[in-house]
Amino acid sequence: MSFQDEMKQMFLRITAGEVEPKEWETWWNRNRSKLEKSLNRGDRGRMMPALWDANYYWMVKTQSGVAYYFHAQGRPVKISSYYEEKMQEEEIRKRQKAMEGYHKNILFAKQKWEAYLQDHPTDTIVFDWKSLLGTPIGQKPAKDFPYKNARTAKQWKECGEELKLRLKENLQAKIAPVAKAYGMKKAGPKTFVREKNGLVSRIQFIGYFRGGGYEEIIRYLCPIYAIQYNLLDLPGHICQGESFQRMRKDWGVIQHGMEAVDAAMVERINRKFDDILTFLADDVLPEWQKIDSLETYFAKERRDYLKATEKGPKDSRTGRLMWNLDTEGKPDTWRADDYLFGVWDLMNGKEGEGYACLEECVRHNSDYMKEHLKEFPDACNDPRDAMAVMYRNAQLFLETRETPDGEQRRNVIRETYEEVCRFMRYYHGLAKKTGRNK
After folding, report:
1. How far apart are CA 163 and CA 255, in angstroms?
2. By C-alpha distance, which of 164, 214, 183, 278 is closest to 202?
3. Is pLDDT above 80 for 436?
4. Which of 82, 88, 235, 381 has its CA 20 to 30 A from that of 410?
5. 353 by DSSP, 3-state: which?
6. Which one, of 325, 232, 213, lies nearest residue 273 by Cα?
7. CA atoms within 13 A on the CB side of 127
8. Cα separations (Å) of 41 from 35, 38, 320?
9. Are strands 185-188 and 214-223 parallel, antiparallel or unpaired?
């Protein structure tokens, strides 16, 4: 058998998924000089890329290169899914191993946090959210569209209206029940909020700014006086983990309204809301439920646990961290953390630390806010302008420093806290429009 015949037989075996990575590597290295004469540079690069390694991820690349080789010769071939399936199995195993190492590394901090929770138990919510998965109860039959992609203004409008109907069906059938089970109430057609023991939790679906569906889902748990930025959030493996990644994948199906919302599209929308429901009901809401007081929210054990989870394990294929929430000691650009901890310190009698944080927050934002308020004088009362609201709040707390008497100052701090919280209930959607008294 000539080398040309041997080569093509090997290539055909690869399209059929019959060659294992090591066998392919050995054969290629043994025949490297002959292959350089038989294949052009492009084919060689597609079949054996420079970073090639003996695993199924790279065999998928090799198979693709072989298929291209036959296609260029006018001989299209059918390729087996064997390497693709083995690659997925291989990646799952490696990811599981990496996550096992990650959880081992955070075990000490997690145990300290769990011990804290045992001493500060909270109510457990029992709700069969899995029964909500699938087709929403009472969902209207899918429409038949004479086109696939919207081209005219009329078609865009028709697709957008149908998309919004399917989003509303899923939101009411899946998200609203689980939010209600956790004590959240509606603050609008796409927003759910809850207030408990000085904390507010909020889930909001943001409309796509060009029309259509939902661009984003905003969710946060924070003190009522705080804004939704730079918070003590969820552990990294929850806020950036598998459920989150699965939810974010193919998000465009509920975002853009430029494709016919036929039966296939309706089913994709239903499945995407299953992913959203799983992320919220299986991960986010149970974790929030553990935190039912400001003391628990700011607990050192919780902060240490969150710190330990900031960096994820390395992805076995890319070598990059799966997630990295570590700011590496850099202060946030708004100094929202100074405001968050400054008020908390002030309320706990740590006036030196509290005023220092608040002063930094106000000082850092003062130049920008001075010009901003010239253009938008009422920005401090606008829930859409988070920085202006935070800046005014920080100013109010900082002004309490001017009261010389200690007892009177503590009373003024408490009064300011109540006044700020009164306005922030409106900001978070817990109350109707409220103006400031200061």
Report:
1. 9
2. 183
3. yes
4. 381
5. helix
6. 213
7. 23
8. 10, 10, 30
9. unpaired
Side chain identity at residue 225, one-letter code: Y
Cβ partners under 8 Å of residue 269, min gap 6: 163, 166, 167, 170, 253, 254, 261
Residue with tokens 């040309």: 4
Burial category of 360 from C-beta neighbours within 10 Å (exposed 0-12, middle 13-18, buried 19 and up): middle
**What pLDDT, in 10s, does the model give residues 373-395?**
999 999 999 999 999 999 999 99
Outline where 193-329 has alpha helix (H). Answer: 236-239, 242-248, 263-278, 285-289, 294-297, 300-308
Exposed / middle / buried, residue 370 (Cβ in 10 Å: 0-12, 13-18, 19+) = exposed
CA–CA gap between residue 238 and residue 257 (Å, rounded): 30
> Do 86 and 21 contact (CB within 8 A), yes or no?
no
d(CA 9, CA 32): 16
416 vs 98, 343, 349, 413, CA distance in Å? Answer: 48, 10, 14, 5
> Which residues on adjacent β-strands are paired with residue 149?
259
- In the predicted model, is pLDDT for residue 324 greater than 80? yes
Residues 6+ apart with CB under 8 A from 314: 98, 320, 321, 322
Sheet containing 199-207: give its strands across.
Answer: 185-188, 191-196, 199-207, 214-223
| In the chain, domain spans | 3-88, 118-308, 336-428
Cβ neighbours of 254 (radius 10 Å): 24
Q: Which position has the token pair 């203004």?
A: 153
How do residues 113-160 score in pLDDT, each as one tens digit?
999 999 999 999 999 999 999 999 999 999 999 999 889 989 988 999
Which segments within 81-182 are labelled E, that is strand? none
Instruction: Give the Å distances, CA to CA, from 274 to 278, 279, 427.
Output: 6, 9, 29
CA-to-CA dists, residue 358 to 225, 241, 334, angstroms: 13, 34, 12
- pTM, rounded to two decimals: 0.88
